[in-house]
Prior knowledge:
There is one protein chain. The chain has helices spanning about 1-20, 40-50, 65-70, 75-80, 100-105, 115-120, 120-130, 155-160, 160-180, 185-215; strands at about 60, 90, 130-135, 140. The chain is built from 10 helices and 4 strands; from the N terminus they run ααβααβαααββααα. It has 2 domains: about 25-180, Cytochrome c-like domain (Cytochrome Bc1 Complex, Chain D, domain 2, Orthogonal Bundle), CATH 1.10.760; about 185-210. By secondary structure, the protein is mostly helical. Heme C binds near residues 56, 112 and 147.
Amino acid sequence: MKKLFLLISLSVMAVLPQANAAGPSIELDKAENNLRDQDSLQRGAQLFTNYCMACHSIKYMRYNRIARDIGWTDEEVIAKMSFNQAKVVDDVLTRMEPGVGTEVLGTEPPDLSLMARLKGTDYIYTFLRSYQMDEEGNWDNSVLKGTSMPHVLEGVQRYSSQEEYDQAARDISNFLEYVGEPAKLERHDLGWKVIAFLLFLLLLTWLLKKEYWRDIKH
Ligand code: HEC
């Protein structure tokens, strides 16, 4: 019994530090995004194109993969995400020339392919909603103080309600979560198919059992 107790407390301890490993604790708001919401993914992709791709790449993605996964044709993805400048097999790269980031912003904007896995979807959602203006009229971000990323969604925020702005941040976070692990979409679907199949099999075996035992007295 003591051993069991020790074992349980050890395994709990092994898990706990991981939960805190994300660094200084910031209260993150829940993105409450939904990877199955294709409209949200499409809106997120468009917002990402218009407001993020000037600086950030998602270089582990290709345009045709995005098209297939979020319900666009090859022509649509190229028109909407690259303004007909790229080919469907191209990686999704930033429009910024190398070196410009360092020159203008003091640092190169990171590739965002794996950012949702690195920092979490809730982090991106909270980060995008945490720009505040100080007394001198400069923007800062309470999640990443002194960040060299400007408040690129300022215009969107100014002309929308809080709910609309939250939704825009949710759509972008949703898209970036998908980008971080594209197979997740298929995996979720596969799970349901497997369960449906097993239920069907259960029904079939039950019917079969009934059939076998029908004429036997028991
Ligand atoms: C004008 C260029 C620019 C644009 C446009 C831009 N970013 Fe950034 N972004 C940066 C830079 C520079 C950094 C590095 C910030 C730092 O380390 O302080 C960054 C960092 C980030 C990070 C990482 C933050 C962290 O904790 O390290 C995320 C997430 C991010 N950007 C998301 C976005 C999203 C989403 C958009 C579009 C809505 C966007 N960015 C648009 C320049 C940009």
